[in-house]
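Each letter names a residue; structure tokens follow underneath. Both lines appear below:
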Amino acid sequence: MSLKFIPTFGDTWDQVGTCIFANEQVAVTLVAETGTHATSGDAFENRAVYIRRFDSDGKADRVWTVDLDSEDMEHFWQCNPPTDA
């Protein structure tokens, strides 16, 4: 998922996560995401909750994300629509 952000934000893209809870079944992480849009120069600042479910081998088989700054994110993406390039 993050790999799609690198072309949009270049080397300004950053994520810092804090583990809230983890066991052999799930992990819950609070993530701060920041970057500067490569074309518009608009600042991207988001906080999100990531929930990962692990399979029997201990690998994440499903990830859910919830943006805590969802209105700001909707506005950012309206002003900076992603391209499929």
User: Anything to note?
Assistant: The chain has a mean pLDDT of 93.
